[in-house]
């Protein structure tokens, strides 16, 4: 699930579920990018979420998120669906019959049946801009749908 690269950074190496929101407003999405580290003497997970995503506004409203990590080669159908459908149009928990496990320190959920879980409180965020990303915008942001980096302190 995590890989130590040559420069000793720990990164996400396969898809995971990110959940934000509470009750009927909870949304699950697939993330393929993210990384772990230390900021401000805190363990953090940094989740890049595009500004156009339904989850973006939910993260801003509720301030917490979870990440649920399926076992390798497990839940591929669910990850594919959750990554290709918008929570604006469909309740992905219901559509996929995903189990909602209440997170212990916030009003959001983990996705049942996964191998590992983290719960995060958003402590900072920053919007990426073209000026910050010299040389990669043509490859990743041709449509100007930039990411916001959500810095989530890992609280559980």
Written description of the protein model:
With 156 residues, the protein is α+β, with helices and mostly antiparallel strands. The longest helix is centred in the middle third of the chain and has 9 residues, at 54-62. The model is unreliable at 1-9 (pLDDT under 50). β8 and β9 (109-111) form a beta hairpin. It has helices at residues 54-62, 76-84, 92-96, 137-140; strands at residues 2-4, 10-12, 16-20, 27-31, 35-39, 42-50, 64-69, 100-102, 109-111, 116-127, 147-154. It is built from four helices and eleven strands.
Count of DSSP E strands? 11
Q: How are helices and strands ordered from N to C?
A: EEEEEEHEHHEEEHE
Contiguous low-pLDDT stretches (5 residues minimum) are 1-9
Radius of gyration: 15 Å
User: What is the overall pLDDT average?
Assistant: 88
**Estimated helix fraction:** 10-25%
Our measurement of the CA-to-CA distance between the termini, rounded to an integer number of angstroms, reads 18 Å
How would you sum up the major sheet? Answer: 9 strands, antiparallel
| 3D shape | globular
Q: Structural class, judged by helices and strands? A: alpha+beta
Strand order of the largest sheet: 1-2-5-6-11-10-7-3-4
User: Number of DSSP helices?
Assistant: 4
Give the DSSP E fraction (strand runs of 2 or more residues).
35-45%
């Amino acid at each position: 699930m995590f890989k130590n690269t040559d420069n000793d950074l720990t990164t996400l190496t396969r898809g995971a579920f990110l959940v934000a929101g509470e009750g009927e407003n909870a949304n699950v999405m697939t993330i393929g990018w993210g990384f772990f580290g230390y900021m401000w003497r805190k363990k953090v997970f940094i989740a890049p979420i595009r500004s156009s995503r339904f989850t973006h506004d939910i993260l801003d409203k509720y301030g917490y998120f979870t990440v649920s990590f399926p076992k390798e080669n497990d839940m591929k159908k669910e990850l594919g669906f959750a990554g290709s459908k918008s929570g604006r149009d469909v309740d992905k928990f219901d559509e996929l019959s995903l189990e909602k496990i209440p997170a212990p320190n916030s009003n959001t959920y983990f996705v049942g049946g996964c191998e590992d879980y983290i719960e995060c409180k958003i402590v900072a965020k920053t919007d990426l801009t073209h000026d910050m990303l010299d040389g990669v915008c043509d490859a990743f942001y041709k449509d100007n749908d930039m990411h916001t980096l959500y810095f989530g302190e890992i609280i559980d």
